[in-house]
Design brief:
The complex is a heterodimer of chains A (225) and B (252). Chain A is globular and about 60 Å long. The longest helix of chain A is centred in the C-terminal third of the chain and has 31 residues. By secondary structure, chain A is mostly helical. Chain A has a two-stranded antiparallel ribbon with strand order 1-2. Chain B has 252 residues and is of the alpha+beta class. Chain B folds into two domains: 101 residues, Beta-grasp domain (Ubiquitin-like (UB roll), Roll), CATH 3.10.20.30; 121 residues, Fumarate Reductase Iron-sulfur Protein, Chain B, domain 2, CATH 1.10.1060.10. Chain B is built from nine helices and seven strands, in the order ββαβββββαααααααα. In chain B, the strands form two sheets. In chain B, strands 2-1-5-3-4 form a five-stranded mixed β-sheet. In chain B, a hairpin with an 8-residue loop joins β1 and β2. In chain B, α3 runs antiparallel to α5. Chain B starts with a strand and ends with a helix. Classes of the chains: A mainly alpha (225), B alpha+beta (252). At the A-B interface, α1, α3 and α7 of A face α7, α8 and α9 of B.
Chain lengths: 225, 252
């Protein structure tokens, strides 16, 4: 068992499992976020529920661990991959043999990680440790999370436009990451064959589009309405 | 197909030996028949070089009918050149245009060091095979043919995996120089059959361990290996290898 996590397949096993865990997290996060389309009260109640639910609170450190595992192992695996071809080709043509996303997972991942850092500073840190306006919805006092979100997308003029653009580009990058990641995770776990590869690829693409489009709706909603 | 001739420019990797630094040399060949194979074109080049008193280009080749796995060459950015499902010996010069510049490089991978010019050392594959790519022979009488019934689907799939000729195009193509397609084919061809199932766990573990030691990268499922494989070995075999490896770990 000890040799498992140092083997190439063992390391990728950790990438797959942590990746699929993050896939579940994204679905939960998106669902909570889309309440914003229902107006301030709906979103604040959704955010309040997420902030106070014991299961979500319990999952937070596990989620952080999932992110760290995925990021650290991606670097370990990538560095080994870079080293495995000491002399590069002068001419390589991979355009027809593999997808752009599959060849650039590390860069898409680094881009998404950059966004994650900004995102944690802008939202998670402010909600947890910053000064929040309090409001009362249906007799329950809670943080005005809606004001925080709406503020970032609308209150800062040109900066809000830039922030919205970065937000949208980040989710396109995440969508491309998921386009390869979803199927790839099952393949690494051995849960694929010729028939299931096609099915999982389609499922993964549907999921990637839902995530990318779902999160993109939020800045568009504030920009357009 | 009617044959015509083309003039080509070659950019060939020349390297004296494993330790000397190599570089590209430019050559020009005229009136190469489009009906000739890529290796026949290389023969013409070498004849010319020898005639001029120069060192011929060293490249691997043997059967020249696409089944031995000896020929290699990274031609214009593709393992075994621009055609699909063929080895370099089966690649025709009709795939190239008149006046085209053709870049010829050896397989590039940490696990495949260059011996000379376009020849690489593929002993790493032999070492992986020695670690488990076989069925141990029990003593006793010769078993009867067809004593063990095997479903047609299984034998077909095993045969597909067994069509791997071990040329190394998968490693050469993979952006990570991963040998997973080769190892998965060799694990699958035996794991699918009753005779090979007995040692399936041990085989997967040992072959992967040696593969990891020899400087090959990690598979990231881009699928480029499957596309460049002259035998069309499927990525599904890699899923099977992963499965065998995980099962072997759980069984421990």
């Amino acid at each position: 068992m000890s040799s498992f996590f140092t083997s190439s397949i063992g390391k990728k096993f950790l990438m797959s499992v942590s990746g699929l865990f993050l896939v579940v997290f994204l679905a939960v996060h998106l669902t909570a976020n889309l309440f914003i389309l229902g107006g301030p009260d709906a979103f604040n109640q959704s955010a309040h529920f997420m902030g106070t639910n014991p299961i979500i609170t319990l999952m937070q450190p596990i989620l952080a661990f999932g992110f760290l595992l995925h990021i650290i192992y991606s670097l370990i695996i990538q560095i080994k991959n870079w080293k495995s071809r000491p002399v590069k080709y002068k001419k390589v043509d991979q355009s027809e043999t593999s997808t752009w996303a599959s060849r650039n997972m590390i860069w898409l991942g680094i881009f998404v990680f950059g966004f994650l850092t900004v995102h944690i500073i802008n939202f998670f840190y402010v909600i947890k440790f910053g000064e929040m306006n309090m409001i009362t919805v249906n007799g329950v006092e809670m943080e005005d999370s809606y004001k925080l979100v709406a503020g970032l997308f609308t209150d800062f003029g040109a900066i809000s436009y830039i922030y919205s653009a970065v937000y949208i580009i980040s989710f396109i990058a995440l969508g491309l990451h998921l386009h390869h990641a979803f199927w790839s995770a099952f393949q690494t776990l051995g849960l694929s064959n010729i028939a299931w590869r096609k099915r999982l690829s389609v499922l993964g693409d549907i999921y990637a589009i839902i995530v990318a489009a779902g999160f993109t709706i939020i800045p568009l909603y504030f920009l357009l309405f | 197909m009617s044959s015509k001739t083309i003039n080509i420019k070659l950019k060939v990797w020349r390297q004296k030996d494993a330790t000397t630094k190599g570089k590209f040399e430019n050559y020009e060949l005229s009136e190469i028949s489009t009906a000739s194979s890529f290796l026949e074109m290389m023969d013409v080049l070498n004849e010319k070089l020898v005639g001029e008193g120069n060192e011929p280009v060293a490249f691997d080749h043997d059967c020249r009918e696409g089944i031995c796995g000896m020929c290699s060459l990274f031609v214009n950015g593709h393992a075994h050149g621009p055609d699909t499902l063929v080895t370099t010996c089966q690649l025709h010069m009709r795939k190239f245009k008149d006046d085209e510049t053709i870049t010829i490089e050896p397989w590039r991978a940490g696990g495949f060091p260059v011996i000379k010019d376009l020849m690489v050392d593929r002993n790493a594959f032999e070492k992986i095979m020695q670690a488990g790519g076989f069925v141990s022979v029990s003593t006793g009488g010769v078993p009867d043919a067809n004593a063990i019934p095997i479903p047609k689907k299984d034998s077909d799939e095993a045969m597909d995996a067994a069509s791997c000729i071990g040329c190394g195009a998968c490693v050469a193509t993979c952006k990570n120089s991963s040998a997973m397609l080769f190892v998965s084919a060799k694990v699958s061809q035996l794991a699918l059959l009753p005779q090979g199932k007995l040692e399936a766990s041990r085989r997967a573990k040992n072959m992967v361990a040696v593969m990891d030691e020899l400087g090959f990268g990690n598979c990231s499922n881009t699928g480029a290996c499957e596309m460049e494989c002259p035998k069309g070995i499927s990525l599904a075999h890699i899923a099977r290898l992963n499965r065998e490896f995980l099962v072997a770990t759980i069984k421990e």
